[in-house]
Specification:
single chain; 209 residues; alpha/beta; Rossmann fold; 14 strands; globular
Length: 209
């Protein structure tokens, strides 16, 4: 599978890269025809810093109190907070960076000690990949419970343009991938044609079948 891997550079900064592998992949929400590997942006501090600068350009006039990091985006979130606090409306601000916990029902929760970073705050939701928007919806439900206000959404890769009336600003989109498609498991044409699933994928990576 790895021998099909292709590298794609951001059209705004060639130092920011993702890898894509064509095939048949299953997520918790859908089946997709590409695995989008964002490991370098999540783990390389140099690339994460470059990516943060690119994302921050979208929020120069958006007041942000807290960045909620999903799917392993904590390092990117920290650099994004630092970049946002340097210029624009958030100049000089001390922006909180937090990650929700998942309970036994797979619901996002915040413990008492971190709820004060959400309650009444302007939130930037940061996610690694948005293919259907279901993970964003789950996070928005969590924000509503803790009385946080969703002000912005950022992603490394997104196949959707907006969610809950807010633009999803992404470093890479489905236009950067040749013929990227996402299907429900019951309507997947690859399944119907008998093409086997190459791997199960989530925000941590992939497991071959």
């Amino acid at each position: 599978m790895e021998n099909r891997s292709q590298s794609i550079e951001s059209n705004k900064n060639r130092r920011i890269k993702i890898n894509i592998i064509p095939g048949h992949f299953a997520t918790n929400h859908s089946h997709v025809n590409f695995y989008v590997d964002m490991t370098s942006i999540k783990t390389s501090h140099k690339m994460a810093k470059e990516a943060a600068v690119e994302l921050a350009a979208n929020y120069a006039t958006t007041h942000i109190d807290t960045i909620i990091c999903l799917e392993g985006t904590e390092m990117l979130g920290a650099f994004l907070a630092e970049t946002l606090s340097e210029t624009g409306i958030n100049s000089g601000a001390d922006i909180a960076v937090v990650t929700p916990e998942l309970n036994m029902n797979n619901q996002m929760i915040f413990r008492d000690n971190t709820q004060k970073k959400i309650w009444g705050k302007q939130i930037l939701l940061l996610i690694s990949s948005a293919s259907t928007g279901k993970s964003i919806t789950r996070a928005v439900d969590c924000l509503q419970y803790y009385n946080g206000s969703l002000a912005a959404i950022g992603a490394i890769f997104s196949a959707i343009k907006e969610s809950h009336g807010i633009a999803v600003n992404a470093i890479f989109s489905d236009t950067d991938l040749p013929k990227y498609d996402s299907y429900s498991s019951t309507a997947c044409p690859m399944c119907k044609s008998g093409q086997k699933v190459d791997a199960l994928i989530n925000s941590f990576g992939y497991s071959k079948i």
